[in-house]
Specification:
The protein contains 15 helices and two strands. By secondary structure, it is mainly alpha-helical. Strands 1-2 form a two-stranded antiparallel ribbon. Helix 3 crosses helix 9 and helix 14 packs antiparallel against helix 15.
C-alpha cells in the first residue's frame, strides 16, 4: 500500500535506498577500505535521493513495484554522487562545502576524491547489471539509457559546456541546452528507466519522458534561484557560488521573479504530461509541485 502523504512516501523510499546502498557500497577487501570510506562519505552525506525516487515512482506509475528494482535505483544515486564529488573539485567549481559538510577533496585530498568519483561511477554499472529478476533486454536498454545520460552527450557533456561558457553571456536557449544535458539528462534517464522496467507502453513512456523533461527544467531553474536567495544553512553550501564562478544561469538572464515564473510554468507542464494516468501517478505530480516550492 502506498503511504498516505508525499512525506511518508519519501521517508519510506529513502530508507529503502539507504539500506540497499549500505549493502552495495562496502569494501570487500581491507586494502580498498580507504577508497570506500571516501566513496561512502559523500554517498551518505545527506541528500534527497531524488533520482532513485523518480525512478521508482515512474515504475509504480505504470503498475510495477519500484522497490523491486533497488539495484538500479542505487546505481542512479551512485552516479549522481560521483558527479557532485567531481563538480566540487578545484578544477571544476572549487567548492568547500556540500550538504553542510566539507567537500570530499577537502577531507580526503584531490586524488582520492577523483578516485572516489570514479569508483562510484563504475560500481554503478556493475550494480545495474546485478539487478535480479528483470528481463535481460529491458535491463540492457536501461543500462544504455543511463550510460548515454551520464556520458559525453549528457551530464559530462553538459559540464564541459558549463566550463566553456563561464564568464560569457549565452542566450536563454543556450542555457537551457546546457542544463538539459548537465542536469536534465539524468532525471530523464531515471524516469524512463523506471518506466521501461515497469513495462510501460510506448504511449506511457512518451508521456513520462515529457514529464521528465519539464521536471528537469523546473528543478534547474529553482536551483539557480536558490543560489541567489536561498538560506545557506538549508542549502548546505554558500549561496552565490554561481556568481563567484561567473556562471551564466537563468537568474543571470532573468530576474528572480521571472525565473520563478518560468520554473512554475515548467512544473505545470510536467503535471499536465501525466494527464493520461490516474492516482498511480500522484507521487510524480506531487514531486513536480514540490521542486518549485522547496527551500533547499
Amino acid at each position: 500500500m502506498r503511504p498516505a502523504s508525499l512525506a511518508e512516501y519519501l521517508e519510506e523510499r529513502i530508507a529503502a535506498v539507504n539500506a540497499a546502498l549500505e549493502q552495495l557500497v562496502t569494501a570487500q577487501k581491507k586494502e580498498f577500505a580507504p577508497l570506500y570510506e571516501a566513496m561512502r562519505y559523500s554517498l551518505f552525506a545527506g541528500g534527497k535521493r531524488l533520482r532513485p525516487i523518480l525512478f521508482m515512482s515512474a515504475a509504480e506509475t505504470v503498475g510495477a513495484d519500484g522497490r523491486a528494482f533497488l539495484h538500479v535505483a542505487c546505481a542512479l544515486e551512485m552516479i549522481h554522487t560521483y558527479s557532485l564529488i567531481h563538480d566540487d573539485l578545484p578544477a571544476m567549481d572549487n567548492d568547500d562545502y556540500r550538504r553542510g559538510k566539507p567537500t570530499n577533496h577537502k577531507v580526503f585530498g584531490e586524488g582520492m576524491a577523483v578516485l572516489a568519483g570514479d569508483g562510484l561511477l563504475t560500481l554503478a554499472f556493475e550494480t545495474i547489471l546485478r539487478q535480479p529478476e528483470v528481463d535481460a533486454a529491458a535491463l540492457a536498454q536501461v543500462a544504455r539509457e543511463i550510460a548515454q545520460a551520464a556520458g559525453p552527450d549528457g551530464m559530462v557533456g553538459g559540464q564541459a559546456v558549463d566550463l566553456a561558457v563561464q564568464g560569457q553571456a549565452p542566450s536563454l536557449s543556450a542555457i537551457e541546452f546546457l542544463h538539459r544535458a548537465k542536469t536534465g539528462a539524468m532525471f530523464r534517464a531515471a524516469v524512463r528507466s523506471g518506466a521501461i522496467l515497469g513495462r510501460a507502453s510506448a504511449a506511457e513512456l512518451s508521456c513520462l519522458t515529457e514529464y521528465a523533461e519539464y521536471f528537469g527544467l523546473a528543478f534547474q531553474i529553482m536551483d539557480d534561484v536558490l543560489d541567489v536567495v536561498g538560506n545557506q544553512d538549508k542549502i548546505g553550501k554558500p549561496v552565490g557560488s554561481d556568481l563567484k564562478n561567473q556562471k551564466p544561469t537563468y537568474v543571470s538572464l532573468l530576474s528572480v521573479a521571472d525565473a520563478k515564473k518560468m520554473a512554475e510554468a515548467a512544473s505545470c507542464r510536467a503535471v499536465q504530461s501525466l494527464a493520461q494516468f490516474g492516482p498511480q501517478a500522484q507521487v510524480l505530480r506531487d514531486l513536480a509541485i514540490y521542486i518549485v516550492k522547496r527551500d533547499h
